[in-house]
Task: structure prediction
Amino acid sequence: MAQRPKELTPNAGPWHRWGYDLRGIREARDVSLGALGAAAHVNASHLARLERAERPVPRHIAVAVDEALNAGGSLVRGWELANLAEPQGGPGARRSGTRAVSRDAARGHVANPGVHVASAPDALALNTFGQAGSDADDTDTVVVPCRIDGRIRFVPVPRRTVLASGLAGLAVAALPTPAVAASPVNGGSPAEVFAQLRRTLIQQDNLMGPRHVLPAVQHRLAGLTAQRKAARGADAARLLELETRYEELAGWLAQDIGDERTATGHTARALDASHITGDGDLTAYILGRKAQLAADTGHPHDALGLANAARRTAKPGSKLEVIAVMHQAHGNALLGDEAASLSGYDTALDLLDRAADDGVWGSWLDTAYVHTARSRSLAALGHYEQAVTGFRSAIGALPPAYRRDRGVYLAREARALAGAGDHQQAAHTGLEAVQIAAETGSARIVEQLDKLDAALAHTPREQGVPEFRSALDQIVLHPQT
Result:
């Protein structure tokens, strides 16, 4: 194994510098590759290759190792500088045993003809996690975006079919899911352990994406259910409350990979469990989530009904009531009732000013969040220019680590731009969202890009539109007809 040089050579590339810094920080903290791999949930052998600049560095790994080493963001900033100097696709391509690529192709931009979006991280994933799945049969399926009759739909497809497609943007979806082990919790009751594990899994979703984390959540959920059935009294009640929260989290993650059936099942079980707990706050929150799921999956009447139920259940003056009112407002927008929708958002803002903060529900809820939700409803009502302004404001306020949210907002902004008639800017913004969709695998982004694609189909030759549509085609499967 190559040893880390005491000094970098003058011609060292940016990724060699990043690997050098990673190893320097790791050794300064007396952390082995194995220990860092366990803390960051990355294979230790793969980390060694990253230190030697033998493989491209996915951003989520840079974030994970930075946090695990308490590096204060230095490794993430170093990643960003290296990616500016030599965009992903470069470091490993010049070494033996890897496919050579041209300098332009190595830049991996979606606008480059013939280059798959997110080619570096996704193509690398096969080497990172192994070539497992080659012996899979047609019963081993994965939900992926497919272009069917001109539109994008998420459907279960045999894993080997996806792997054989050669589309880098689908590679991560087709890989056997690596084990995601939450950080161990020392001591505490079973409820405390499962609560901490849930918080860790949520953090891992931000780093690794829903496709890797959902199986881990489902695995923990099975263990939690078994513990709850064996418990009695207050312990059983607390575990049932946690089971409800795990079911809701699993539903959210399933929705984000486009698996509507699994999302609906988990969310329905969460609602059932919340009723058993007798916790009205929990029930109100789950009703709100069901309203959101119904709206996102094209059932506006159900969304409004569930939002009404959530508001009836929520305590007056609570943040849960604010959330329910927002779901009511969006349901009304989807049904074309502009006055009720806009009035609803005004009510939400007024309630938020006076809402009690119990430190449990809606900690993320603020005025900016309400305005962003209002922008989405404005787009649904056809007020595209106002929606664009709102989405741009939301994007500008997002922390850099909120990569997936940025992709969702960009895709919604692009769709609103197309509605406003600015097709060129819509294509440009949509192209950026395609890159994030490929990185994260988020169905929420892809679903918005599908709507944008349909809107731009009427102006296929306008500047930027062919590049956007070509890039989008690189992250969806095209079934043989």
